[in-house]
Amino acid sequence: FNQQNIGNTAWAISRLLVRDRPLLDALAAAAIPTISLFAVQGLSNTAWALSTLRDCNHGPLLHAISSASIPIIKDFDSQALGNTAWAFACLWLQHSGPLAYAISAAAITPGA
Questions:
Q1: Which of 4, 8, 27, 99 has the fewest CB atoms within 10 Å, measured from its CB?
Q2: What sections of the chain are H helices per DSSP?
Q3: Sign of the four-CA dihedral 14, 42, 60, 66
Q4: Which residues contact 10 (CB under 8 A, 6 or more apart)?
Q5: In degrees to the nearest 10, what's the CA dihedral of 48, 54, 57, 59?
Q6: How distant is the alpha carbon of residue 63 from its chain centre?
Q7: Nearest 5°: phi and psi at 17?
Q8: How far apart are CA 17 and CA 7, in angstroms?
Q9: Domain range holding 83?
Q10: Percentage of the residues of the chain whose pLDDT score is greater than 90
Q11: 79-85 LR contacts (CB < 8 Å, sep 24+)
């Protein structure tokens, strides 16, 4: 799987409400080492997918998504900002504070 395949697969199984733990584990294992290569949509979709499934078991993946998103937050469009903020807010993750701050700053910046 490449980065787009991982994000698309996560999104698809969440839309179907498939809670397949081994599949999610495999996606997380494939995503974490390459998370810095993910496009904005892949980061946002993967976070959204885990949140839709109420999956708090993949904290390392969510932390990686947060860490990868912050430096490129200016590249997020309004949908990606909203979806990512929603995803992390729904899961009440401890490490989402810096990401929430970055999203807030990007949302009020003209052109974001």
A1: 4
A2: 3-15, 21-31, 40-52, 59-69, 78-91, 97-108
A3: negative
A4: 24, 27, 45, 46, 49, 50
A5: 40
A6: 9
A7: 55, 40
A8: 15
A9: 3-108
A10: 58
A11: 79/44, 80/40, 80/41, 80/43, 80/44, 81/106, 81/107, 81/112, 83/44, 83/45, 83/47, 83/48, 84/43, 84/44, 84/47, 84/48
pLDDT per position as a tens digit, 55-101: 777 889 999 999 999 999 999 999 999 999 999 888 776 567 788 88
Task: For the chain, give the number of residues.
Answer: 112
Number of structural domains, the chain?
1
Query: Looking at this protein, which amino acid is placed at residue 42?
Result: G
pTM of the predicted structure, to 2 decimals: 0.86
Dist CA 100 CA 102 (whole Å):
5
Q: Is the dihedral of CA 41, 44, 55, 68 positive or negative?
A: positive
> What is the Cα–Cα distance from 105 to 97, expressed in whole angstroms?
12
